[in-house]
């Protein structure tokens, strides 16, 4: 009877350890995905900023408001 309880306890411990390991792996993947999304958003934001600046400069050039030239 004691051997059976020990075996069940051992199996429960193994299952708990495996669950924690899987959860840890999933959290790492989620963190990587979040970091990748953040990088993508920053790049998109930078591109939008550059396009807006280019459009602004174009309007200034057309209207003669660009004093840098």
TrEMBL record:
InterPro entries on file: LEA1/2/D7/KIN2
Region ranges (Disordered): 1-69
Transmembrane segments: none
Coiled coil: none
Bias (Polar residues) ranges: 1-18
Bias (Basic and acidic residues): 19-32, 48-69
Extent of Low complexity compositional bias: 33-47
PANTHER family: GENOME ASSEMBLY, CHROMOSOME: A01, LATE EMBRYOGENESIS ABUNDANT PROTEIN (LEA) FAMILY PROTEIN
Protein name, UniProt field: Stress-induced protein KIN2
Species assigned in the record: Raphanus sativus
């Amino acid at each position: 009877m004691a051997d059976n309880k020990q075996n069940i306890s051992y199996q429960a411990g193994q299952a708990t350890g495996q669950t924690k390991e899987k959860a840890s792996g999933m959290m790492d993947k989620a963190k990587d995905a979040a970091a990748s999304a953040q990088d993508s958003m920053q790049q998109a934001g930078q591109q939008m900023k550059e396009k807006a600046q280019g459009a602004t400069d174009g309007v200034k050039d057309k209207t003669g408001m660009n004093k840098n030239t």
